[in-house]
Amino acid sequence: MLSRYLAAASAVNCAVGRFIAKHIIATGSVVVGGCVFWVFAAASCAAPPQSPVLPVTDHYHGIPVVDRYRWLEDATLPEVAAWSAAQNAHARRILDALPGADKVRREVRGIVAQQAARYEGLQCVGGKRFCLRSDAEHQQPLLVSVDEMLGTAEQRAIVDPNALDPSGHTTIDWYRPSPDGQWIAVSLSEGGSELGTLHLYDVATGKPMGDTIRNVNSGTAGGSLAWTRDSRGFYYTLHVPGTDGPLVQRVHYHALRSDPAEDRYEMGNDLPAIAEIQLTVADTNEHVLATVQFGDGGQFAHYLRRPDGEWTQFSEFGDGIVQAVFGREDQLYLVSLHDAPRGKLLELSLDQVGIVAPRDLLPLIGESDETIVTAGKAFWGEHTVVPTERHLYVMYQQGGPSTIRAFDKRGNPLQAELVTEPIAHVFDLSATDGDDLVFGITSYLSPPHYVEYHARDNAVVETALRTPAAIDTSAWRVERELARSPDGTLVPMTLVMHKDVVRDGSNPCVVTGYGGYGISNEPEFHASRALWIDRRVIYVVTNLRGGGEFGEAWHAAGMLTHKQNVFDDFSACVRHLIDRNYTRPNRIGIIGGSNGGLLMGATLTQHPELVKAVVSYVGIYDMLRVELSENGKFNVTEFGSVTDPQLFTALYAYSPYHQVVDGVSYPATLFITGENDPRVDPMQSRKMTARLQAATANTVPILLRTSANAGHGGGNSLDEHIEQTVDNAVFLMEQLGVSP
């Protein structure tokens, strides 16, 4: 019997194995000495391992739903580990045998080797400047100090995760310098887990101070820290066991060189279990701001700690206040979506907190045709409203690309031209001296770099924190087009292509999208896109509903019971490419990750005939079980819960795992996940892979690639990023008929 199978497993736990063996439908096991050995069948190298079907039936509001692969949810079972190993081995056989794999790998590594250092996460504190630097010599970014932004900008490494962990699996989650520039607090996590431990370092020497605090960051609620003005201590988020088991966030205070066990509790016991907290401290007084998000759906509440230690709530989750920033004169600037889905700016004096409701304030800057950027940036520590001595700088966007507008303190617009590139993305806004500003900018054609805006001269000056392109983009062109969704909504999309491309219906296309959480798909530079553009492949970025490209109404139109709009928008963009004679279905590949992975799953199940190949990273596919995972609870405010009959109906209708139909010819698909993913349980990819492999009538590959020491993407090593890039490239090239 064993000769019929490819042995790919070891002995499993006997009791569990016997239980499963009794219920097995597809005989993929053999009993030896009372224990079950799982052997996943492979008729040839091209056939995937068999996945035993062990059906479990759940009832939702009277509707029975059969789950054939529930057993694949438990990663602690040895047979699940064996199944994953067999799938990985199968994927490697297919991917490594593809024509040109070694050539593409050399090309990618060549691009990386030629690319100069890349900078991100710039913070200007205490007269010093800090940022994260990535380069080809290191697996993980380094935290460096920058002595001078202009000229040659001498840099010094303060924290090097590569020296701390030569394996390359330890990464910096976030960092916060003290106001005096003497100390720096850094959250470090391992293996893509995002479970961060806080370390303190002396900026001058780079030596650790010894203060270490575990569980300050997680993949569910993130983490945050805010120093006191005197730099003698800080407020920070701590993840502690909740009443129902999973960790929840609380705010504590730590005094330098004290025992963390004696840290003072500050706030959070009355917050929801899915609260996500970010902290900031005023530059001019001792007030502390806590911004609390209710899960991942974009609702916020705000709390102010006064110098006497009292916390006062001044906005609730339903108030529409999505960002709060300290001003220079004892006030808060608030971005409000109340009766203004594109955003308006309010001003609230600190002495009015708790007395005047934000919705009773008149706008300082009213709503406009552009959208104030909020979701995804403002919450995770990147302010999109920056007050200076006399100015207010506000980040706006229009359908994806972003820019910066300048106002005086009365809200009057100033004639300041900060961003001249028409299809660009700005980030990391930070005030420097007077009314000057430093910020990052990138586009599809230019790498990210930092510039300084000098308000007195109305001049933008390049800094030394710039990355010369490792590739030549002079032959590339960028075009924006609009697709019409089935309900008539116009959906923007950006086409990045070689200037030689003509609309003759034969061009291969790679299309990506996201459409969720109010997060915008912004212009970004990726040198690896040369793999596509230089081979005359059109790379297409879509701006779908569910994102924040046109404000909260755009987001709301793609969440909860309206999630199907996201998938309709994406398929409309793909059809637009066909109708405009750019391409045809057998030359279209799609790629997306996380919520974009859900988009990939929905597209391949709803429109399998529309595309030739799919690459889906760390995606969500079983929408009926996602809320049972630790981070899944945080997604309920965006997706909804099966406990609500109306939301269950919507979730079940598009849930990719449940919409797979036996006997349908599905496109070639590569699923990619990481063993340590804290945001999307890898079981989602395991179950979807098994279901699709069993159902498809097509002979093209359905593969699952699982990476050890990897998570949701952030924190993955440079080598892991390179290998993922190579695998998805050669997979799509093979399916789309692109010569490697």
**CATH fold category name of the largest domain:** Rossmann fold
Strand count: 39
Uncertain stretches? 1-45
Mean pLDDT: 92
Q: Indicate the proportion of strand residues.
A: 25-35%
Based on CA atoms alone, the radius of gyration comes out at 26 Å
What shape does the CA trace take? Answer: globular
Give me the CATH superfamily of the largest domain. Answer: Alpha/Beta hydrolase fold, catalytic domain
**So what's the CATH class of the largest domain?**
Alpha Beta
Number of helices: 12
Explain how this protein is built:
With 740 residues, this protein is α+β, with helices and mostly antiparallel strands. It folds into 4 domains: 125-272, Methylamine Dehydrogenase, Chain H (7 Propeller); 282-377, no CATH class; 388-469, no CATH class; 471-736, Alpha/Beta hydrolase fold, catalytic domain (Rossmann fold, 3-Layer(aba) Sandwich), CATH 3.40.50.1820. Helices cover 18% and strands 33% of the residues. The strands form 10 sheets. The protein has an 8-stranded mixed beta sheet with strand order 32-33-35-34-36-37-38-39, with helices on both faces. Strands 5-6-7-8 form a 4-stranded antiparallel beta sheet, with no helix packed on it. A 4-stranded antiparallel beta sheet has the order 9-10-11-12. Strand 1 (29-32) and strand 2 form a beta hairpin. The longest helix is centred in the first third of the chain and has 19 residues, at 78-96. The two termini are 41 Å apart.
